[in-house]
Fold this protein.
Amino acid sequence: MSNQRDRVVGVIPSRWASTRLPGKSLVALCGKPLVRWVVESASRAERLSELLVATDDRRIADVVERFGGKAVMTRVDHPSGTDRVAEAVAEVDAEVVINIQGDEPMIDPALIDRLADVMLDRRDLDMATAATPIRDAADVENSSVVKVVCDGDGRALYFSRSAIPFVRDDDMPREGLYRRHIGIYAYRRRFLDVLVGTPPCVLERAEKLEQLRALHIGARMAVVETEDVGVGVDTPEDVVKVEGLLRARGMA
């Protein structure tokens, strides 16, 4: 990607502190640290000009640099991964910045490419994210599963932990109605700076969903459809589960 206007930089926020699994970026999965799995998966995306690990801990940076990745040291006190991403690219030339979750070792590189493409093809967009159909009825009512509704052009209207849309009539078909938000974000670089410079809005504080701040300030946000739900590592139990998936997929 020689055109500077088309530069896409991927950033993996990787902080040390974690309530349920401190230092999880360095937790071993099948003998390899989590952060390495994420970097290697994301590196297979063809549209990234550069891939950075944004961390607040020298131990994580050292591991990343030893296996050939590029780490950027950031402040410890960032309130969110988005703020950490913004600091990491403060001196980086990019048209699009993609925030790649640091706890998903099997992130689909094709999804990263699709987000990059939609941002480069549609210059009117401020952001892009992803969603997948909800097929398990229990997930509709699960507040840990974030739902998204879109307009006719595929842009986000609202995100919620509640079941949206609400179905009033019992005879209304529910198949294909609900979509689960997938937490990966592509930002227009100039919009990212505006976003982190804006305080949380009341909707964000109520739902504890940072993407609502973006909508509050008028973001035009595309929602890309994917079948990849993503598998995160948040607890010691997740480590065992994900190791099994890595082996089952022939990745380890």
Remarks:
- The chain has a mean pLDDT of 93.
- The two ends are 31 Å apart (CA to CA).
